[in-house]
Amino acid sequence: MIANTREAGQGVVIAATGLFTPPHTITNRELVESFNAYAARENARNSAAIAAGMAEPVAESSESFIQKASGIEARHVMDKASVLDPDIMAPRWPERGDDELSIMAEIGVAAARDALDRAGREARDVDGVICAASNMQRPYPAIAIEIQQELGIDGFAFDMNVACSSATFAIQLAADSIAAGNARSILVVSPEITSGHLNWRDRDSHFIFGDVATAVLVEAAAHAGTDGWMILGTRLKTVFSNNIRNNFGFLNRASPETMNTPDKLFVQNGRKVFKEVVPMVSELILEEARRLDLDPARLRRLWLHQANAGMNRLIAQRVLGHEADEDESPTVLDRYGNTSSAGSIIAFHLHSADLRPGDTGLLCSFGAGYSAGLVFVRKAA
Ligand code: COA
């Protein structure tokens, strides 16, 4: 367990955030139509085996189940046509040449530029880039270094992955580097192309994810001036679990016959995740708030990980001591879906401008690993 506390006024701030939202939206209706067309085709193709009791038919998906079980109504994707085509059901884009910007770098740069513009910063003001996301499109050179190059940053960059907690873990890392004097300003960029690792043919999970990119500019308070959000403390926790898993990796090549089995995409036991992660995260928040001498009931806003509306309701209730309204715990899951590590950052980005100096809030992620990351912040000027 690693914890970190900083005194307000002398430490590290979130100077600004940035967001890139892909142009295409898929509604639950469009998604379910496509899935059910696929199910009908599969069942027609296998009709003899199904009639003979040798195979199970593919069950239909339903809009009302998705909405009720998850709170998701739509999601954004980088490629809509191929994802909805019952013959493909996966994103497809032409492979880019080595001298072209990769797709993850492209959307990461868009989010990073948004954050820099909002903070009124230039590339020369930044010392480092961390690309923190739940999947990288290649192992090397790091996507973060490509983003650094495209932005023109003189410094260092690296990729890291803690699944849905990648961004909050990277914020702690950035804050620690800055507090130690190793950098003044670090961009945490989370390009999440989740459509690439979602199994769009799996009825239990085909509705979960959406694509997006976020960026968080973390700076030394002295460098940032009076704006932004003081980081009061951060806390990270991991506990091993197989309940969210993806076995895709470079060693799969060694066994070509299993390379494309469904475990090489996202798989989960959603019900267990729900039950086990809610208490783990709520207790972690209460414990860390006590350590920072913060009254959890007085947290002005919770920007929670966006995976399931019911989970967020329960966590917010345990932390605040009452049922949270949209103002206290805003939802972006309904229109963005689960965007992995970017979810709590989108919630913060879209729902923080109205807070007043002195207001205290919490960015909180949780997901595969299991992992959970907390960043307590206080609005400065
Ligand atoms: N359409 C219609 N019915 C569906 C369906 C779909 N797309 N998917 C599953 N069902 C059915 C199941 O077959 C099951 O039927 P049964 O009761 O006859 O067996 C029933 O709905 C309930 O399925 P279950 O998987 O238990 O649903 P749930 O209430 O647990 O909701 C999740 C599923 C995924 C929305 C929910 O568990 C969740 O969000 N968990 C947290 C996940 C999480 O945070 N993961 C982190 C990811 S990074």
The CATH top-level class label of the domain at 2-11 and 229-379: Alpha Beta
SSE-based structural type: alpha+beta
SSE arrangement, N to C: EEEHHHEHHEHEHEEHEEEHEHHHEE
The hetero molecules present are: coenzyme A
CATH architecture of the domain at 2-11 and 229-379: 3-Layer(aba) Sandwich
Q: Strand share of the residues? A: 15-25%
What's the main sheet like?
10 strands, mixed
First-residue to last-residue Cα separation: 32 Å
Morphology: globular
Query: Helix share of residues?
Result: 25-40%
Number-wise, the strands total 14
CATH superfamily of the domain at 2-11 and 229-379: Thiolase/Chalcone synthase
Account of the protein in words:
Residues 1-9 have low confidence and may be disordered. Helix 6 (143-151) links the parallel strand 5 and strand 6 (156-160). The protein is an alpha+beta fold and 381 residues long. The chain is globular, with a radius of gyration of 21 Å. It has a domain at 2-11 and 229-379: Thiolase/Chalcone synthase (Peroxisomal Thiolase, Chain A, domain 1, 3-Layer(aba) Sandwich), CATH 3.40.47.10. Strands 1, 2, 5, 6, 7, 8, 9, 12, 13 and 14 form a ten-stranded mixed beta sheet that branches. A two-stranded antiparallel ribbon has the order 3-4. The protein has twelve helices and 14 strands. The protein has helices at 28-45, 47-51, 63-70, 80-84, 103-119, 143-151, 166-179, 221-224, 270-291, 309-320, 333-336, 343-350, and strands at residues 2-5, 12-20, 24-27, 74-77, 128-132, 156-160, 185-192, 212-220, 229-238, 244-245, 267-268, 301-304, 360-367, 371-379. Helices cover 33% and strands 22% of the residues. The two termini are 32 Å apart. Bound molecules: coenzyme A. Residues 61-62, 65-66, 69-70, 164, 203-204, 207, 244, 268, 270-271, 273-274, 307-308, 311, 338, 367-368 line the site of coenzyme A (COA).
